[in-house]
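User: My instructor asked us to take a sequence, write out its structure as tokens, and then describe one feature of it. I'm not sure where to start. Here is the sequence I was given:
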Amino acid sequence: MDHDGVADVVPEADDGWASQIGPKNINITNIAIVGANRTKTDVFRYFLDDIVKASTFDDLIGRLQKGGARLQVLGIFDGIDFHVDRDEDGGSFGGTNTAVVVRVKEKKLTETKIENETTPDGTTWSVSSAIKNYFGTGESFNAQIQMGKSPSSFQIGYTKPLLYGSKRVPKTFDAHLFKSSHDYTTYGSYTENVRGIMLRTFVDRHQFSYEGSWRTTDITGPLGSPLVAQAGDSFKSSVRYSTARDTRDHHLLPTRGYCATATSELAGLGGDTFFAKQDATLQYNIPLPYGISINYLLKGGIMLPLSVPPPSSAAPLTRLSDRFFIGGPTTMRGFATRGIGPRLGPRQALGGDMYYNSGLFLTTPMPIAFPGSNMVRFHVWANSGNLALWDRTRPATHTLRRFTQDSRASVGAGLVIQTIVGRFELNLCRPIRAAAHDRLTHPLQISFAVNLG
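Assistant: Let's start with the prediction itself. The structure tokens for your sequence are:
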């Protein structure tokens, strides 16, 4: 198997058979599979059935490479090789009878991983275990425990590739039961426990999902009236669609290509939570001479409540659990985590029903080469963004006007380092536009991220 995930095709013919037949038509008369101790024949038949349609040797090689790449996507093989030779037992059709041997090395039945991740909410550790390909159709049973200040979670799930329809489009179904605990006391004065089920279908770059979740919110700080109405239980039943396309040369230190994502969610198929929500991201990179690049990032989202409480009710239009939050070293450098937007006090960020966040980066290689310098870059940057809640006492145009006029901004410079756990940044930050109630940070800001954001 090569490093690009495309299976190697190795013609074996001691007598130069492959070169002798040249462009002649060939006949696939024998296909053998070696090493598939658990994987069922139906899996190979689905991904490789069109190799019998190969008309020439070169055509066969191309079909095998494509089929091998699709098999590798299943994630159940450590290696896939194809061996092609004359079929000595397949009769005589001018010496062009061809045998194909598929050699695979299956992954272990069980797999366990220990990982850590740093987000604006803190550092978490996770332990995950999976039983792969137990029934021989590429399925997996998995469990994961995640530990940290926020979130801590446990989930069990089942994933299965869908082996029907066009094999050019990978399709997968998974189902998960989950339970998570989130601690937002540092900047929100509340904690949240979530239990629920997630059903998802992946079709190429598209994802369709259903979520049913029971959320319990506990207020831990001073009880301002907007937070009192948020306390207690709520049930969300929603459908979601998301899509993504990523052509970047690197997700941590990109220099060319783009990444675009979009997510649409509709909640209200039962339960007591009703909204329509749209979120999108575009990250675009332009290479310049001497290893310099320009990186641009734009994120935005809006949530529309579909059920409006009566004027006499203190119930909010939207819930904390579903709102957008920005601020922090991976969204708005120079601001504290969730430090932008409406709040009741220093530790009570309320979030927003709409937001935007943009960043412009000029990234350069280090001026002096040293061991590992290819994983270190210098950048100067500028961030802008804003967050707003719908005001139920005023027309929607008032909220939209305030949203467009009250943008925050910051500028700065620093180092970016590619590490095994993500993108490490050490920045000197200067907010140049902030509201009086926003929370700022020390000018020297450190962050880890799994992407450019």
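For the description part of your assignment, you could build on this observation: Helices lie at 17-21, 41-48, 57-73, 225-228, 396-405. Try explaining in your own words what that tells you about the chain.
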